[in-house]
Design a protein that fits this description.
about 375 residues; alpha/beta; 8-stranded mixed β-sheet; 6-stranded parallel β-sheet; globular
Amino acid sequence: MYSGNVDGLKFSKPSGTPHVLFVTSNGAGMGHITRCLAIAKSGTAQFQSSFVTLSTSAEVIGEQGFEYLHFASSGTTGQPARIWNNNFYQFFNQLTRLNKFDAVVFDGTWIYRGLRDVLDKCPELRLIWLRRGLWKQTARIDQLPAMEGYCSKILTPWDVGESLDQGALSKVRTQTPVRGIVLSDGELLPRDVALEKLDLDSSKHYALIQLGAGNINDISDTRKKVSEAIRNLSNGSVIPILASSPLSQQSQCEYDPRTIRKYPISPYLRAFDFVVSAAGYNSIHELIRWNIRSLVIPNLDANTDDQQARAYALQDEMNHFTAITDSDILTGISSLLRKEAEISATESASIKYSKFIDSGYDAARAISETIGPRK
């Protein structure tokens, strides 16, 4: 049930630094893996990072230079939760016997029973829950106290939607806030370099469409409407480009624009005049940090993530627009195509919010402090 780029279950032994194991759930998007990768990269001077993930896009972890094991999720295997948790317990119990982890960082909505069973046997193993906030009002939190009892610390990254948060976690005060997290190795590529690497003609103009993997609901109709709106409203002067998620399970249709498949996509964002994006955590905060003009279309079918609140929190910024209806899509794209939507150096969201976002350094510091001095 598991695979990866290590020999069996034995990760490389850290040389004089703490060993942190990141465990990520199998989300509908890339959020869990991306946040953990950002922290792992930012924390290289403080600890060695290894990964266990349920995500079917596990290979991207290896591509980013880290050792990983992929354990197939309950949904992938079709196993009932009870059987899957028993199997995960056996796997994780053996893993912790063969490796000395100074901390386990779990990024997911619920801490799996199989993981909790291992912690019952190894109370000395520190668990840090990296828990994204902005849950919907309908999200269940009755199990939170029991799960939080396993945690040495709960880290919640800053979210632009906090100002509108009235959800299930809005009154919870057990977490430690850290700066918002984006995966970045530095500044974005200049436009001409990004276009060259994407094999796009530098004499033309492009808009990026990144509406997610389509694993929550069918986004093909929305994708088509956005593509047609960009072509029609720009009279063909702006070419839509589709960003394909590593998790995407939807096939491309004849009306779809050209597709690019890059992870992470953020280094190439300056190749595009604007972006039409879902309102997931990572996508929104990349747009903010890099000052990319955008139309944001929240996925209202997300289970716990209040994407609508996040999108509305951003829409008052002069370079960002929100679409809930088909009419909103047309209005937003028209606005982005007009001159008055140009970036303002003094009023951009990236300047306003830059002090709240980093590349995982603040979270890495909090993890290192939780581990403490190595004995």
